[in-house]
């Protein structure tokens, strides 16, 4: 417990309040209680105070980029996703509470938690993992062959609470996301095929659509597989067979640890206007394994900075 929280509990004379609320109340009882607290708080708020709150809250301001240009680009990119067999999804602006922190090493403090068992969407790939797991759990999707895959895509506005220094970083922003779900059938078949498909989409987006000067990929070897270096080599070999001109670099010993990805983390680097940017990040995660309690499940995610790419292309960063 932080000093700040402890100070609040001491100040109101309720040292066990957190335990009472989190352990002794059901989810529905806690929700009812908090809804009433919010009702009282808003009933005491005047219009003048409401405007002041709006002016002071960094999460609620509109995006500072031209809407029509972004919407046009969004539609064009979604068409590319669909052409590459990634079905576009329009996700809800909220996800289930714990969508990120329960299955991944993400701190709930960095996510805008809400009432009614929800949180403001902070990562579309987590939301798509839940959607896919639900499709499989309810048999709404049944594979016809062991190698069948589910592929989804979206361009979604995200909200994250951490402050990121640097020009072009805002509390809410749109990210383009791809996910592929399948099963382990041996010989890294899913991993080789799925990541190669993602690299093909990144090629199409950045070389053909954005016309960047240079595009390359880094495969960072991570824990979670018995031999991540061999995995990276197999993926690279498969990708080069499909795209002989692709540039893939294997990083066998990354400088920083990362418990988020399993086996391989993939970075996408571009060069535009004589500047180099890391524009996309992805890799294999075990979320569907956890959600469906099946070690054979495989899940690959990829996300790129859609709004950030606009800023780069237009010299705004």
* Structure summary, number of beta strands: 10
Q: What are the secondary-structure elements, in order, as H or E? A: HHHHHEEEHEEHEHEEEHEH
Radius of gyration over C-alpha positions, nearest whole angstrom: 22 Å
Task: Report how far apart the termini are.
Answer: 38 Å
At the fourth level of CATH, the homologous superfamily of the largest domain is: Bira Bifunctional Protein, Domain 2
The CATH architecture of the largest domain would be: 2-Layer Sandwich
Number of helices: 10
Low-confidence stretches: none
Q: What percent of residues adopt helix (DSSP H or I)? A: 25-40%
How many distinct domains?
2
- Shape designation: globular
Structural class: alpha+beta
> Mind summarizing the main beta sheet?
8 strands, mixed
CATH fold descriptor of the largest domain: BirA Bifunctional Protein, domain 2
- The largest sheet has its strands arranged as 1-4-5-10-9-8-6-7
What is the averaged pLDDT score?
A: 95
Beta strand %: 15-25%
CATH class placement of the largest domain: Alpha Beta
Give the topology.
Elements: H1 3-11, H2 17-23, H3 27-43, H4 47-56, H5 67-83, E1 87-88, E2 94-96, E3 118-120, H6 124-137, E4 150-159, E5 172-183, H7 189-209, E6 214-221, H8 228-242, E7 248-251, E8 264-272, E9 275-285, H9 287-292, E10 297-305, H10 306-313
Parallel strand pairs: 1-4, 6-7
Antiparallel strand pairs: 2-3, 4-5, 5-10, 6-8, 8-9, 9-10
């Amino acid at each position: 417990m932080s000093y700040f929280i402890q100070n609040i509990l001491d100040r109101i004379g309720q040292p066990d309040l957190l335990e009472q609320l989190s352990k002794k109340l059901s989810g529905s009882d806690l929700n009812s209680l908090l809804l009433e607290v919010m009702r009282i708080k808003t009933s005491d708020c005047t219009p003048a105070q409401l405007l002041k709150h709006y002016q002071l809250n960094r999460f609620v301001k509109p995006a500072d980029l031209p809407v029509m240009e972004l919407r046009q680009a969004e539609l064009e990119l979604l068409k590319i996703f669909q052409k590459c067999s990634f079905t576009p999804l329009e996700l809800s602006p909220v996800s289930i509470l714990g969508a990120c922190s329960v299955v991944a090493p993400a701190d709930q403090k960095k996510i805008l938690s809400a009432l009614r068992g929800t949180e403001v969407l902070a990562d579309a790939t987590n939301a798509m993992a839940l959607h896919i797991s639900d499709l499989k759990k309810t048999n709404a999707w049944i594979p016809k062959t062991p190698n069948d895959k589910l592929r989804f895509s979206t361009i979604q506005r995200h909200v994250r609470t951490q402050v990121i220094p640097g020009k072009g970083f805002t509390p809410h922003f749109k990210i383009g996301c791809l996910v592929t779900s399948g099963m382990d059938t041996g010989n890294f078949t899913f991993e080789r095929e799925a990541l190669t498909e993602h690299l093909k989409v990144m090629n199409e987006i950045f070389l053909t659509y954005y016309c960047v000067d240079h595009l390359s990929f880094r495969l960072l070897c991570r824990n979670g597989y018995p031999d991540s270096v061999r995995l990276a080599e197999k993926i690279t070999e498969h990708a080069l067979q499909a795209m002989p001109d692709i540039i893939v670099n294997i990083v066998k010993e990354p400088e920083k640890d990362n418990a988020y990805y399993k086996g391989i983390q993939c970075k996408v680097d571009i060069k535009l206007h004589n500047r180099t940017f890391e524009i996309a990040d992805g890799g294999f995660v075990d979320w569907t394994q956890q959600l469906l309690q099946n070690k054979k499940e495989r899940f690959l995610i990829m996300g790129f900075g859609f709004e950030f790419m606009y800023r780069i292309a237009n010299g705004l960063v």
